[in-house]
């Protein structure tokens, strides 16, 4: 498989999976996407039934990595990734809530959110590719909470990888912060930025667009702008749909959404032939995507802090990948719209694009008050303690899919203990951290606090690199 940029022109080089994994963001500012969508036929999908999670990963992902990894190398990566560090033997278990509602539990990984599915794999891919190319890489990431801990957990203590992780100061939960800042390793640098997640993400993009800096330190991305992140997440759409009757039955997925990475993985599964009825974008009051679906205009708003901080995002980077598809894969159109977005703060979808968007997707925004009510209702009705992000999914599902005959799967994106305060305030029950994290609140922390200043950040990173 070869990869192209969402802003690319036809004459551009086509890159391998190895290249795009190490590069992260395309040099023209776009995001990498595969040159075409590989198809699994109905028989191939039916044959996934009964396979282990790791084996489904091999079948679904091999077309994307072909040319960079052999099937047996991929199998080793998948078996190591989805092994004992996932606390549930099914890796991504599906739990039935009512006659046609299901929770997909994606929080059994080492840092208790779905980000582990992709980052545990990405860490192993970095090991393989840096060893093969005999080079050291420097990761710069921005986190609204969960990417940071998952990326740090996946790369801590590595010789060939340094990781700088930016989080918005005071805007992540205490468990989220401590999962990052209590990892004291020479290759891990945690930085709290005086600003929002969008400011952190802008610092990352700005650093990538400084091509000299980028080349000097072998800059690499772990945010879902990195294709390998999105790719790894495609697998659980397949395992889940197959367990509920695919390819003979369509399934709908409700995805608590921020950066549009997780739900874009659902779109990829659909493109690959998985019968999906609807993909529901569930957002908190940071609702740029829900508004886009409702009005056709993608317009930047102010970030508001909510009970679901991992979705406090107003610029959803991966929407660019969908836009590329909606325009019929016209890189020039995408580049023009994104330039307008950075100049004027918005762009519009054409009528035909909006229609195509609405055909598969629907969207709903859920307030904090509704989120708290939903956590409480779920505990009363089903006995399940859910986290605030998952509650946003439950809320959107009840509005958008009232009359659905297809099974409805709500992605449970985080463990309730990760957002213990919000869960306890809503339900009166304090969710317990799993045993291996029980002492998290007592561990030593280390992190720096920096201004929202790109040149200063890059100078700091350069100095760190030179001192190695
Ligand atoms: C990252 C995250 C999301 C949002 O996922 P995107 O891929 O950014 O849309 C939702 N819930 C939780 C718990 C997360 O960590």
From TrEMBL:
<dbReference type="InterPro" id="IPR037158">
    <property type="entry name" value="Thr_synth_N_sf"/>
</dbReference>
<keyword id="KW-0456">Lyase</keyword>
<feature type="modified residue" description="N6-(pyridoxal phosphate)lysine">
    <location>
        <position position="115"/>
    </location>
</feature>
<dbReference type="Pfam" id="PF24857">
    <property type="entry name" value="THR4_C"/>
</dbReference>
<dbReference type="InterPro" id="IPR004450">
    <property type="entry name" value="Thr_synthase-like"/>
</dbReference>
<dbReference type="GO" id="GO:0004795">
    <property type="term" value="F:threonine synthase activity"/>
</dbReference>
<keyword id="KW-0028">Amino-acid biosynthesis</keyword>
<dbReference type="InterPro" id="IPR000634">
    <property type="entry name" value="Ser/Thr_deHydtase_PyrdxlP-BS"/>
</dbReference>
<comment type="similarity">
    <text>Belongs to the threonine synthase family.</text>
</comment>
<dbReference type="InterPro" id="IPR029144">
    <property type="entry name" value="Thr_synth_N"/>
</dbReference>
<keyword id="KW-0791">Threonine biosynthesis</keyword>
<comment type="pathway">
    <text>Amino-acid biosynthesis; L-threonine biosynthesis; L-threonine from L-aspartate: step 5/5.</text>
</comment>
<dbReference type="GO" id="GO:0009088">
    <property type="term" value="P:threonine biosynthetic process"/>
</dbReference>
<dbReference type="InterPro" id="IPR036052">
    <property type="entry name" value="TrpB-like_PALP_sf"/>
</dbReference>
<feature type="domain" description="Threonine synthase N-terminal">
    <location>
        <begin position="2"/>
        <end position="82"/>
    </location>
</feature>
<dbReference type="InterPro" id="IPR051166">
    <property type="entry name" value="Threonine_Synthase"/>
</dbReference>
<dbReference type="InterPro" id="IPR001926">
    <property type="entry name" value="TrpB-like_PALP"/>
</dbReference>
<dbReference type="Pfam" id="PF00291">
    <property type="entry name" value="PALP"/>
</dbReference>
<keyword id="KW-0663">Pyridoxal phosphate</keyword>
<protein>
    <recommendedName>
        <fullName>Threonine synthase</fullName>
        <ecNumber>4.2.3.1</ecNumber>
    </recommendedName>
</protein>
<dbReference type="GO" id="GO:0030170">
    <property type="term" value="F:pyridoxal phosphate binding"/>
</dbReference>
<feature type="domain" description="Tryptophan synthase beta chain-like PALP">
    <location>
        <begin position="95"/>
        <end position="334"/>
    </location>
</feature>
<dbReference type="Pfam" id="PF14821">
    <property type="entry name" value="Thr_synth_N"/>
</dbReference>
